[in-house]
Amino acid sequence: MKFIKLPLIFSALTLIILTNCTKDKKVESETTAVTTSKNGKVYEVNTVTSKIEWKGYKIVKSENAGHIGNISMKSGEVTVNNGKLESGKFVADMTTLTSEDLKNDPENLAKLNGHLKSADFFDVEKYPTTTYEITKVSEAPAGSDYNTILDGNLTIKGITKPVQFNANVSMEGETIKIATQPKDISREQFGIVFQMPAANGLIKDEMTLQIVANASAKK
Prior knowledge:
By secondary structure, this protein is mainly β. The protein has helices at 6-22, 106-117; strands spanning 41-45, 51-59, 66-81, 84-93, 98-99, 129-139, 148-156, 159-172, 175-180, 183-186, 202-217. It has a single domain (6-217), classed as Lipocalin, CATH 2.40.128.110. InterPro entries: Lipid/polyisoprenoid-bd_YceI, TTHA0802/YceI-like_sf. Residues 42-216 form the Lipid/polyisoprenoid-binding YceI-like domain.
């Protein structure tokens, strides 16, 4: 006799019900006022070495199932005053979104990338960029694994929400390096509510984003 794991089934059913309830719910933008100054030196983001790294997850079939990938930067600028990050804005090119774990499987890579770029997910034809504008820069508490706290406005699919990142920021000559802590973001808050059939493995609401940026003094 096979025993069914009821807690797992109830979790799946709950997720399906919540997803159906949010499909028709309009998502509103929320913004945080920009309090940073821009008196410092301007640094231009290197679009070759800068990116947003992402992770998406499935549940039910396997807690470890999911995909990882990256999105290239289209543009960006930060300002540095007295050797410290002062302000900044990053613009990611959503048309470059790709999965890294399927790079050796061209057929499934093309299918996944195409689906993620479709209206089911990021709708890159309509919303070709994702942006993060820093609204406040603070020092992290002593003893933290990160030296900086970034408050900012994250815009995905035309919807803006305040998001805070822990980050490590360092100056190396005329280059500033910024690497945020991976951050779980609710995709539903940005109007991404697509769900797979339960038999294929339900998709978690959380997606993980990490900003990795290098910028050089603008000439």
